[in-house]
Amino acid sequence: MFPVKIALVDSGLGLLAAAAAVRRARPDADLVLSSDPDGMPWGPRTTGDITARALACARAAAALSPDALIVACNTASVHALPVLRAELEPAVPVVGTVPAVKPAAAAGGSVAVWATPATTGSPYQRRLIADYGNGAEITEVPCHGLADAVERADEPLIDTAVAAAARLTPAGVRAVVLGCTHYELVADRIRAAVRTPGTAGPEPALYGSAAAVAAQALRRIGAEPAPAAPATGSLAVLLGGRPAALTAPAHRYAEGRLLAAADGTTRGTADGSGRTPAEVAE
């Protein structure tokens, strides 16, 4: 095996799911998390603004010489992917994130696509469903406030937003596509909310993108998964291009704790103090 460094870009904590997937596949991989807390959420912004902000995050990450960059954000992938690839490739392969409509629809049965209100009903999502829906019965579900609640790790607001989206989801749906990377951080809550009590058959399957984009990033650089590799990977966090540490809300999620626990040395702290990311956040 050769050393691997993967960078990830998102407006906020949505990149945690894909970063954790990379960490599980390659515990020895160095990770760079570059986000834009001052500008999130990106969804309501114009294409030009989203592109500029995603490009700024990508440039900050590229300065740390990653082998590949994951755009761990559906919105940024829709609006900014061509610009990011034009600037960074071929030196740094850029992997976008697309909602997993194709595999969800291929399995048959009814499908719900949970997405932000800005994405739900958008020409992009409608094209995705038309091209890869495979004739399945697909319901688009706007998840008002869910991404923001996840970003803040606000437990009551998460429960409220998940419950509201679940009420818009048809009973007995066979699969739910998580059309925003933030949603993967609360996948268990979503699964519980869409389960229909008293109905026969399996509970709905959830389709996220984190594992797929992590695998694609490794393929693009010719690296093999090695989940048994030593957990020696480092962690660098950039907030608005500035070195930082994992935020306190990040530690509220299993994915954030995995990233912090895998690297509690000075390699994982932006300030070089020797404190763990949790200690720095406090």
UniProtKB/TrEMBL annotation:
Q: What does the record give under GO molecular function? A: glutamate racemase activity
Q: Name one GO biological process term.
A: peptidoglycan biosynthetic process
SUPFAM superfamilies in the cross-refs: Aspartate/glutamate racemase
Spell out the Low complexity composition-biased ranges: 262-276
What keyword terms does UniProt attach to this protein?
Isomerase
Keyword Coiled coil recorded: no
Q: Look up the domain of life of the source.
A: Bacteria
Q: Which PROSITE patterns match?
A: ASP_GLU_RACEMASE_1 (PS00923)
Q: Where is this region: Disordered?
A: 262-282
Q: Which InterPro entries match?
A: Asp/Glu/hydantoin_racemase (IPR015942), Asp/Glu_race (IPR001920), Asp/Glu_racemase_AS_1 (IPR018187)
Q: What is this protein called?
A: Glutamate racemase
